[in-house]
Amino acid sequence: MNGSRIAVVSGVGPGTGLALVQRFVAGGYQVAMIARNAERLNEFARDIPGCHAYPADVTHPSQLDEALTRIQAELGHPQVLLHNAVGGSFGNFLEIDPQVLEVNFRTNVMGLLHLARRLAPAMIAAGQGVIIATGNTSSLRGKSKFAGFAPTKAAQRILAESMARELGSQGVHVAYVVIDAVIDLAWTRKRYPDARDDFFIQPRDIADEIWHVVHQPKSAWSFNVELRPHGENW
After folding, report:
1. Homologous superfamily (CATH) for 5-227
2. Which residue in 133, 120, 121, 123 sits closest to 58, CA to CA?
3. Helix (H) or strand (E) segment spanning residue 61
4. Beta bridge pairs of residue 226
5. Do the strands 80-83 and 182-183 form a parallel or antiparallel pair, or are they unpaired?
6. Predicted model pTM
7. Where are the domains of the chain?
8. Beta carbons within 10 angstroms of residue 121's beta carbon
9. What gap in Å lies between CA 110 and CA 106, rounded to an integer?
10. Which of 11, 16, 10, 17 minimizes the C-alpha distance to 200?
11. CA atoms within 13 A of residue 101's CA, in its CB half-sphere
C-alpha cells in the first residue's frame, strides 16, 4: 500500500462514519476503519473496495495501539485522522452515573489523544497531515440533560484547539467540526417520526464538508467548522 493516501476513521457505523469512509475511498484513499463492531466492519470491508477493518475499542489503549500498529505495518503512515467515535448519555448531573461520564471521556477525549499521539509524529516528519474530530453543540454549551456528555465534548474541542496551535506551524492541520443537527439515521427517524426531511442533516453532506476541510489550502485553514440544516434554530 506504500504510496497510497491513507485515512483512519474511528467510530465507523452506519451513519457519519460510513459516509466518511465512502467519501474518502471515492477520493482515492485507502481507509482504515476503527470501531468495536468487528462483524459490521468486516461487512463494510467486503462491500467497499479500498477500506480495511481494524476492530478496536478506543477506550482501551492496548486495543487501539494494536490496531494502529497493524495499520502502519499493512497500509503505511496515515495522512488523515478522522476521530468520529463518540460516547454519549443523557441526564442531569444528579441522574447520570458518574462512571458513564468517565467512559464518555475516554471515548471522546482520551481516544483523540491516543490516536493523535500515535499518528501525528509521522505527519510532523512529513510536514503535512490532517486531524479532525467530529463534535456537536454540546462542545459549546452545557444544557441540563447533557451533563454526562457535554463536559467531554467541550474538553475534546479544547484538546483539538491545543493540538491545532501546536501542529499548525509544523504543517499539520487540526480542525473541529461541530454538527449542530440531528443526523439522519434509522433511530433518529423513529425518535422524530413527524419531522420533515430537511429537519435532518445527511451523513453524506457531513462527509463532503469534512473532505473539503481536509483538502483546504494552507493559506486558508479552518479550525472551528459548524454545520447545520438551513432550518435549524440556533
Report:
1. NAD(P)-binding Rossmann-like Domain (3.40.50.720)
2. 133
3. helix 61-74
4. 178
5. unpaired
6. 0.95
7. 5-227
8. 12
9. 5
10. 16
11. 17
Q: Nine-digit cell at 34?
A: 476503527
**DSSP characters for 89-130?**
--B-TTTS-HHHHHHHHIIIIIHHHHHHHHHHHHHHHHT-EE
CA dist list (Å): 197 to 136, 184, 188: 20, 9, 12
Please check whether residue 155 is in contact with residue 140, taking contact to mean a CB–CB distance below 8 angstroms: no
The grid coordinates of residue 190 equal 423513529
| C-alpha distance from residue 139 to each of 66, 222, 224 (Å) | 29, 17, 11
State the CB neighbour count (10 A cutoff) for residue 73.
Answer: 8
Q: How does pLDDT run along the chain (234 residues), one tens digit per residue?
A: 445 899 999 999 999 999 999 999 999 999 999 999 999 999 999 999 999 999 999 999 999 999 999 999 999 999 999 999 998 888 999 998 999 999 999 999 999 999 999 999 999 999 999 999 999 998 999 888 899 889 999 999 999 999 999 999 999 999 999 999 999 988 899 989 999 989 999 999 999 999 999 999 999 999 999 999 998 888
Question: In whole angstroms, what is the distance from residue 176 CA to residue 130 CA?
Answer: 11
The kind and range of the H/E element at 10 are strand 5-10
Coil, strand, or helix at residue 132? Answer: strand
Determine contact, residues 29/48, Cβ cutoff 8 Å. no
- Angstrom distance (rounded) from CA 8 to CA 47: 18
Residue of 47, 59, 63, 5 lying closest to 30 (CA atoms): 5
Alpha carbons 151 and 118: distance in angstroms, whole number: 25
CA distance 227 to 216: 17
